[in-house]
Structure formats: C-alpha cells, structure tokens
Amino acid sequence: MSWAIAIALALLAMGTAIALYKLPRAVWAGLAASLVFGLAGYAMQANPDLPSAPKAPEESRVNLEEYDVVAQRREFIADDERSRADFLVTADGMARRGQFDDAVTFLNGVTTANPQDFEAWLALGNALVEHADGALTQPAQYAYRNAASLRPDHPGPGYFMGVALIRQGRFPEARELWAQALAIAPEDAAGREGLVERLNRIDAMLAMVAQAQAMEAANAAAEGEQTAPATTATAAPEAPANGQ
Prior knowledge:
The relative contact order is 0.12.
C-alpha cells in the first residue's frame, strides 16, 4: 500500500522538521496543511494496480496539470453505462487539449438531445469544473445532480464533486461525499475499488492534520504549565523589612 508509505513519510518529515529546527507552534498547522496539499493530488489518483487506472504523476498538487479527467471518468463507467453519442468523443478530445469551453458546448448539445445520457451529464460536470479552474460551480453541480438522478446508486457524481472540493482545499466535505458515494455503490460498481483506495488516503491525510493539531494543543498546554509558576513568582511583591 504505497499511499500508506507516503503518508508515513510525510508524518516523519513533519516531525523531523519540528524537532530539528525547533519550529514554533504557529508554524505547525501551516506545515501540516502544506503536506496535506502536497498529498492531495496523490489521493485523487487511481490505484496503479487497477487495470483501468491512469499512471500517477511523480509530482502531484491540488491543481494537477497532469490530471486526466477523461481517464478518471472512464474508470467509473461500466461498458453498459457508456454514452453512444459521437460528440462525446469529440468533447473528450477537446477536454484533453484543455479546450474546456468547447467541450462544454458539445456536451450541452449531447445532454439536450438526450437528457437520459448519464455519462454525458457526468462529462459535462467535469468539463464545467475544469473550465472554472477546479471550482465546483452551480452549473457543474446541476450537471452532477442530473447524472445522480439518472443513476442514484452510482458513485461517479459524488466522487467527482469530491475531487472538485479537494482542489478547493475542502477536505472534510470531500471525504463526506466520497463516503456517501461508497455507501450507495453496489459491490460490483465500476470505480468502487479505486474509490475505497482514495477514501483511505484522504482519511490518512485528515488524521495527519488532526495529529498536528493535537501536538500544537499539547505543546501549548505544556508551555502554559511552565510559565504559570514563573509568572506567579515575579508578580509577588517583596515584603518590607522589620522596622522600616
């Protein structure tokens, strides 16, 4: 489980930095957040052992330049769920070239011609998110909701909404959406195994943040106990000598 090794190394790096460089408490939360954002892209990648998973990039960040939204969508689409619209293939080509505005135009046409096209709605939501630089806009939410209404037990809409939230740094909300998507997904649902892996990764990252916050709170309490007696001693006035 390479994700577990990555998280363990991140925790070790944070602990080493704090110990060696005697970083102040004010820096701890920022350091933990930086590590989480560095691992966020890794959490969004598929399990490299899965046949349909894209290869994880060597360097990941929240706004992934190498994030292949088309390959990620196809991981969550079974053969019998695939769209038969020719323009979806055209839109995918545009999305892979970064022409998300054009992709949205084509996908709007597909969903207008066939409002029952689940994959087209999912692709439209993804294209709208990419067009907005990773933001989960109202039009994107509308597309994802339409996809979810067509297949209420499908993990895809919840997963991709969670991806958008991760890219905005909203990790707890993304984790909740992923957990809900996993709970409703059938055991044999396309992409379910990869979703389990990603959910484990984001849980580990959130645990890392919680650990950093606990360390900060413990250190603050320890400093308070050390400074309290000293403050009391210096605050006490010196008693006058007898006869003065």
